[in-house]
DNA sequence: TATGAATGAGCCTTCATTCAT
DNA sequence: CATGAATGAAGGCTCATTCAT
């Protein structure tokens, strides 16, 4: 049980440390000490410190892509789809809040090619999200007086900002925040 | 006169580099090379690399505090005050977008005591902002069904997120974004 | 039968890699990958990476000793013996050119006691070779105006240098080179 | 006087150690300890350990090129030119015997682009040397029954091999070896 | 016999900072 | 005021070797 999954333990530990102290201030030595293994073990499972970081991005991007795709595929009306997407994005961001902290703060620490991959996948996600906005505008349920990029940024900023203020286990539940932030967004988005 | 320029040049150069490559990936050597001075000169004006970073936080925090205080001091109604505050915050964030990039990404690179000071001053700002929300709720113009921290975060996230998507000099003007994001926020905030 | 092949395959592969990239730049992992076995297998047949290297020296030294001894034992005149020895040394060096590459470049990578053994055996070989020179001088067929060590070095340098310029399978055949280098050597060596 | 020329001291020390123990077995720490400085000092003057190695090749190649060019430029007959070139090559190789030791053993430790440069410059040298052989053949003073590459290798091997047997300060003087090896070479080279 | 996960010492290199000039 | 050579601690990473299975 103890050494059962060294790789997972290393992933868990590194996210924890990267979120708390930042990628640059976390040494490989700190990670292996915290995980109770040696450097050799880490480099047996990961090719570099950068891999440890990229794994976090990969996990989050894969998850978000799957959720978004699944919700859109249900074929619900734009407003309803948007509500589900937004609530899911907030909920998921809370579930993976440590990963999110790293995700938004440490992009510039990725190697160049990894950064490109991350940006490409984020653009894809963005495009799918934007698609819902466009459909809502065509259906006359979303306002059209504000450019799409502004409408999109107005929501994306929320899950992004969570790690700066929200404490899991605090007074406000995960579900409540998800519902409230979604509500605020949809209120602003609504066609008059 | 000359020395004044050197110090300012170092400040300008370091923000630029920190924003582009991150604090950790920017070496003191790169900064002095880009500024066209030598290390000795840098250490004449700044005690450490950390000072260069803190200066950015100090500049932004001072500015935001001044603007917020000034606007509140006008004694306008809550909704009107809020509109001015939000527009100003977005506009200012765009004017200082490179500083903002560093501000939100590099907190964990600050030395411990500097970090505490930054957090204290941000809390103060937050409190003043929150004060407007409370006043608006008491006046019956802002909705009360959503906790204050969520309402605050819902706006703070916007200027924060600007550096991730907004390009100064692009299709959407600084004033337009400020008005649009403020509009969206106030639409959500409005009591029904 | 199978295990025998594994050991030989490892020996073959390691010479190949050592010759191409040098001993230091060749990792044990590369060797086992190229040989299609695992590390455990390698360490089953060899005690260390150093053993793999020493084996090359042992093979070459044994071979050269056998050939030299055999030729000398024929009891031919010095000049004739020398011709046969030189031609054989060049031919053999070409046949084992990869081993030769390693032999001359990687001595300092041997462990101390192994190095001593190699040096002892090379001295022995040298002594036997020198014996032919002395005999030729006594018989009046080899020049005596140049010190023996210089005469010896003048030939040893040739097989040594082969790996720096000769390509097996190129325009000049193995036999031709052997005859030509021997010819050049004997021309210089000849008493006037 | 003591720290007067740290860069030269580092160059001297590193050649010494590379020649004695090999490049791979010499650590940067050993070099700086032996030179009485710290690692920072070394990396102030050299970009990498590889630079320290390449500097040796550069020094030798520059020297050899200069000497060869100068001698050829005198416009003497081929046999006379060849005698001067060979004697100089042996003499110089003895003067720089530690550099030579490294030169011939550590090529494979050079970085890829550096290796290419070294090979290009060696080819140039070879071409100029070969030019003398061709001229001598045309003039009827050098034998023509052996291919040029073999004739060239027959001499190049000698300075190459020096570090394996010659001890400066031993019984045979630098000038004597130079004259003797040259004599042996020319005796073999002579047209009949 | 053979595996390959894990070790741990050591390596090259970077870099913020200092200080004699 | 300003220089830039030199420091020295720390960092990421490699790799020959071991050992439980």
Structural domain tally of chain A: 2
- Helical residue percent band of chain A: over 70%
- CATH topology type of the largest domain in chain A: Tetracycline Repressor, domain 2
Low-confidence stretches of chain A: none
CATH architecture of the largest domain in chain A: Orthogonal Bundle
Q: TL;DR?
A:
The structure is a homotetramer of 192-residue chains. Chain A has 192 residues and is an all-alpha fold.
3D structure, described in words:
The structure is a homotetramer of 192-residue chains. With 192 residues, the first copy, chain A, is mainly alpha-helical. Chain A has two domains: 1-46, Arc Repressor Mutant, subunit A; 48-189, Tetracycline Repressor, domain 2 (Orthogonal Bundle). Helix content of chain A is 75%, strand content 0%. Chain A contains nine helices and no strands. Chain A has helices at 6-21, 28-35, 39-45, 49-73, 78-95, 97-105, 112-138, 148-165, 174-189. The N and C termini of chain A lie far apart (59 Å). The model of chain A has no long low-confidence stretch (mean pLDDT 94). The interface between C and D is large, with 38 and 38 residues. The structure holds a DNA duplex (21 and 21 nucleotides).
């Amino acid at each position: 049980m103890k050494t059962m999954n060294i790789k997972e333990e290393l992933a868990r530990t590194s996210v924890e440390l990267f979120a708390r102290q930042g990628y640059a201030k976390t040494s490989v030595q700190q990670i292996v000490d915290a995980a109770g293994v040696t450097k050799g073990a880490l480099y047996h499972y990961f090719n570099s410190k950068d891999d440890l970081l990229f794994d976090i991005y990969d996990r989050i991007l894969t998850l978000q892509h799957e959720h978004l795709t699944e919700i859109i595929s249900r074929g619900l009306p734009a407003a309803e789809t948007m509500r589900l997407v937004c609530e899911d994005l907030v909920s998921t961001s809370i579930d993976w809040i440590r990963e999110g902290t790293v995700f938004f703060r440490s992009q510039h620490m990725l190697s160049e090619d990894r950064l490109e991959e991350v940006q490409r996948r984020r653009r894809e996600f963005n495009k799918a999200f934007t698609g819902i906005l466009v459909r809502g505008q065509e259906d006359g349920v979303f306002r059209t007086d504000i450019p799409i990029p502004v409408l999109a940024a107005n929501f994306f900023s929320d899950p992004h900002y969570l790690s700066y203020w929200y404490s899991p286990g605090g007074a406000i539940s995960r579900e409540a925040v998800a519902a409230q932030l979604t509500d605020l967004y949809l209120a602003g988005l609504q066609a008059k």
